[in-house]
Design goal:
The protein starts with a strand and ends with a helix. The protein is built from nine helices and six strands, in the order E-H-E-H-E-H-E-H-E-H-E-H-H-H-H. The protein is α/β, with parallel strands linked by helices and about 220 residues long.
């Protein structure tokens, strides 16, 4: 897991979510800054000391105050970071839901993950950090930007996909459900529900369904 993490965030309430996520993942001694200019200074110092940061978690919006800043927002910070440490992993943690901005962050600025500040953002952040550590991209599930984001997975749905992901064949799932007293447990009910999920998501195979759920942190 990451050992050198820098957080650029100017609101204490958001910092609490980040702190909790890092604590749960046993990531100790992260560094916190409230200004983008300070983030760049920290990153440069890490490079000079041969102790570079491995992960940057940054907001997009930073409130202006009495202190003049050369770098005024998260997008500018990301551009500056890419110039001095191109391989630094970056997670954006923001309330912004505009699809165009998010698309540009991934496609033009090459960020690694985007997490929306929301009710369960600690859980979301932990999934993002794990994914980025494993060299995977991550985006909060509700920001997909098409009809797939409107589909709500029930606990039953998640269980079915998890069993598939664990290598359990469809024909073996009913026995597993019966053993754990989970209903409906018939073969017809299992097959019907898997078919409904795939049709709702425009997915053709169980393999694609597993990949989708992993990509969006559902399993």
């Amino acid at each position: 897991m990451f050992t050198k993490v820098l957080i650029a965030e100017d609101y204490e309430s958001s910092n609490i979510s980040v702190q909790k996520a890092l604590e749960d993942l046993k990531i100790t001694n992260p560094k916190y800054v409230s200004y983008c200019d300070d983030a760049i200074s920290r990153i440069k110092m890490g490079i000079q000391e041969n102790n570079s940061f491995e992960l940057l978690i940054t907001d997009l919006s930073f409130e202006e105050d009495h202190r003049h800043q050369k770098i005024k927002n998260g997008q500018q910070l990301i551009d500056a970071v890419k110039e001095i440490q191109p391989d630094l992993k970056i997670i954006v943690f923001s309330v912004n839901k505009k699809q165009g901005i998010i698309d540009d962050l991934f496609n033009k600025q090459n960020i690694n993950a985007y997490v929306r500040k929301a009710r369960e953002d600690v859980k979301d952040l932990k999934k993002a950090i794990k994914s980025v550590y494993n060299n995977e991209k991550y985006i909060s599930y509700d920001l997909k930007g098409n009809k797939k984001s409107a589909f709500e997975f029930s606990e039953y749905d998640t269980l079915l996909v998890t069993l598939l992901a664990n290598g359990i064949l469809v024909k073996e799932i009913p026995n597993h459900l019966k053993e754990n007293e989970i209903k409906p447990a018939s073969m017809s009910a299992v097959e019907k529900r898997l078919k409904e999920i795939k049709e709702s998501l425009s997915i053709n195979s169980n393999e694609q369904l597993i990949a989708f759920c992993k990509d969006f942190g559902i399993i």
